[in-house]
Write a structure and sequence with these properties.
Layout lengths: L6 H34 L4 H4 L2 E7 L5 H13 L4 E5 L14 E5 L4 H7 L4 E6 L15 E6 L20 E4 L2 H14 L5 E4 L3 H13 L8 E4 L8 H5 L1 H9 L3 E4 L5 H4 L1 H10 L6 E3 L6 H5 L3 E4 L4 H8 L4 E4 L18 H9 E4 L7 H10 L2 H13 L6 H24 L1
Parallel strand pairs: 1-2, 1-4, 2-3, 4-5, 5-6, 6-7, 8-9, 8-11, 9-10, 11-12, 12-13
Length: 413
């Protein structure tokens, strides 16, 4: 008798096994750190006093997510400690008097400090709390997650948001997705609050203020995600050849993670297709200008799709949205991705069959007014409370802190 395990289940079991092994190794490392800390009589001065509010960012590219929230807190005179794992994070240079930005080390050094953190409310966009390196500190009262993209909340690697206490969302469909996951995994219900998208509110304001672009040659932006299902891995050099044949200005903006996890592939592509008058490689930390000067976006399942379509009101071309979800939370749900249903309304679909006709597809998407209605519908579903994201986020953080403080005072009585 032969035991058969389907690929999806096999991928899930493999992910769980790797997570268990990794967690075991990490636990041993943390035990060593604790022992060394106790034996040395060391002090963690930044954790001696309980901090009311902490924001943690694992990478400098997320400053755009947190900046409007920090500005809102600063305008209300609320002190917040911003902890970053990037020593060149723009947050370290911000001049907001009520925001104290500190570099807490890279990778495991950052998580080692966070695992002993003493704070009331911690806000972060980093998935994997309580799963791998980042453990819940016993001295943190409440963990709040805010997504860094306006699409399915189930497109994190498995168990990415299971152990947060609250999640700030941008659309009601995300609430339904989380509730289904909680039931399937027998998890306690988190506090879910639809606040909107603070960073998109800011980008929309910048876009209006920037005004209309002067006449320019048609410009195509290729900005994929990373991994085996992403455009660069699936199509490789072929997508470059086809794009260059269009005669349009081409901008290539790989996902930042590609430069870390797919170095060999990226280096090979840059060498074969270097910067020229027809092709530009873009690595700007702030993607505002590169999105603004592009007429159409080609991507796969990257969150930038919705930034481009909903803020800049321009069409997109995406690869097959039904990509392999076996490593993601959505694998657990017996339903199509919200993204899969909405992408066809925003523009065209790129596949092997129409690759050679990419120029015609680009022209059709740019010149067809029908896609504007699709963008309006998508915005209604995934970008609620436009212009109110930062205010609603800070309102929730304050409310949660007050609840925690009141509960502790009552316990003392």
């Amino acid at each position: 008798m032969t035991l058969y395990i389907d690929p999806g289940t096999g991928s899930m079991l493999f992910t769980i096994l790797i997570g268990i092994i990794g967690a075991g190794i990490y636990s041993l490392r943390m035990l060593f750190i604790k022992l060394r800390f106790m034996l040395s009589g060391g002090k963690v001065s930044e954790n001696d006093k309980k901090l009311p509010y902490v924001i943690f960012s694992d990478d400098k590219r997320y400053w755009n997510i947190f900046e409007p929230i920090c500005k809102e807190m600063n305008s209300r005179g609320i002190d917040v400690v911003y902890m970053t794992a990037s020593d060149d994070d723009k947050a370290l240079e911000c001049d907001l008097p009520h925001v104290k930005s500190v570099f807490v080390g890279k990778d495991n050094k950052a998580f080692a400090k966070l695992n002993f953190l003493n704070a009331s409310v911690v806000l972060s966009t980093t998935p994997g709390l309580g799963v791998y390196q980042w453990k819940r500190s016993k001295r943190v009262d409440h963990y709040v997650h805010i997504p860094h993209a306006s699409s399915d909340i189930t497109l994190y690697r498995m168990f990415g948001i299971d152990y947060y206490d609250s999640i700030l969302l941008s659309g009601d469909y995300q609430v339904k997705q989380i509730r289904k996951l909680e039931k399937l995994r027998n998890l306690p219900e988190k506090e879910l609050v639809t606040v909107g998208i603070p960073y998109m509110d800011v980008m929309a304001e910048r876009f209006v203020a920037a005004g209309v672009l002067p006449d320019h040659e048609r410009t195509v932006l290729l900005a994929p995600s990373w991994g085996k299902s992403a455009i660069l891995s699936v199509y490789g050099e072929k997508i470059f050849e086809v794009l260059l044949k269009t005669g349009y200005k081409i901008i290539i903006r790989p996902h930042p993670q590609s430069f870390k996890s797919e170095t060999e592939m990226i280096d090979k592509l840059i060498k074969k297709y270097p910067n020229s008058d027809r092709l530009e490689w873009n690595r700007d930390t702030d993607n505002f200008e590169v999105l603004r000067r592009s007429d159409i976006l080609i991507s796969d399942f990257s969150g930038v799709i919705f930034d481009f379509a909903l803020i800049y009101d321009k069409p997109v071309i995406c690869t097959d949205p039904n990509f392999d979800v076996s490593l993601y939370d959505h694998w657990w749900l017996d339903e199509p991705l919200w993204t899969s249903g909405v992408l066809p309304k925003l523009g065209g679909q790129l596949n092997e069959e129409n690759m050679d006709d990419l120029k015609d597809l680009i022209d059709h998407c740019i010149e067809n007014p029908a896609f504007a209605e699709g963008r309006r519908i998508a915005a209604e579903e995934t970008w609620e409370h436009k212009g109110e994201g930062a205010r609603r986020t800070v309102d929730f953080l304050i409310k949660k802190y007050d609840e925690i403080t009141k509960a502790k005072e009552e316990d003392k009585k």
